[in-house]
Amino acid sequence: xxxxxxxxxxxxxxxxxxxxxxxxxxxxxxxxxxxxxxxxxxxxxxxxxxxxxxxxxxxxxxxxxxxxxxxxxxxxxxxxxxxxxxxxxxxxxxxxxxxxxxxxxxxxxxxxxxxxxxxxxxxxxxxxxxxxxxxxxxxxxxxxxxxxxxxxxxxxxxxxxxxxxxxxxxxxxxxxxxxxxxxxxxxxxxxxxxxxxxxxxxxxxxxxxxxxxxxxxxxxxxxxxxxxxxxxxxxxxxxxxxxxxxxxxxxxxxxxxxxxxxxxxxxxxxxxxxxxxxxxxxxxxxxxxxxxxxxxxxxxxxxxxxxxxxxxxxxxxxxxxxxxxxxxxxxxxxxxxxxxxxxxxxxxxxxxxxxxxxxxxxxxxxxxxxxxxxxxxxxxxxxxxxxxxxxxx
Length: 393
Hints:
By secondary structure, the protein is an alpha+beta fold. Helix content is 34%, strand content 28%.
């Protein structure tokens, strides 16, 4: 991956326990155009509150992020730890403090061991000369089983640029902003308003279209920085270059979002839920999310039980407009139900064969109009319970 004007570093600060890198830094050599989306949870972590305030200026130059401690529900001491971390980084880099974004992930309600961060920052800054984006991706992992990364290249004004991203998340994954941590960087020059508009559309089609367990975190953050180091003419809205940039950005975000679902805590299945024929796209999304979040549906996926009735029940209580006489359902290409009733014949056996696969598609047609939506989810296994029962130990 060749991306200009960014440096990376990750070190061990032993924030939760020793033995792994858990403090990371992404640094743009010049101030970058930036925008972000954050959790809509009313309970927000200290770094979210600080970063929300700072991102309103539309620029950022550095991101410091830790794993092992969410710095959420930690009161004024938590805010001081977030501000103090930012100050250490900004002073060390020689950049304005307001241009530093702060992010955290880990256990909620535990005070941040700020002195450990203070002790680790000099090594963090020194490591910028040799670090990689992969180092950062690994440092932000919590219950993730693999680092999540993606990159794509584009061209504007005859000049090549790159869009790259990393993400973390496996549990507490539920839409309504970004459902985890994701950091996107690009060396393209992009007008701020264009960056903001394309970014929000890309998030809604990716991170806001996934769910693992229906739980929304206190720390969800998705940040994009574009520093213009590639040297292309600034990309503006309504141009072919803007359309290409949005497509590339969307591909990066959707890849990262799908990686999160595939790494869902204890997950054994990756399931694409499609709802068609809805009265509106909003109705289709409502129905799709009800299916994707249903514990009964998700356990049936895990058990490879072609229990299509659970899916119709979820659609029925979702709040979307439904006429059960018009409902149909397919597992991949296997018709399971039509006109609201079982399709009969070999449907049960064929449907069960589909559910034995690691990846499959569930399509529900409401038969009302042209509204449609797609979301991505996983199954719910015994392992999910084990992971979350033991999370703090």
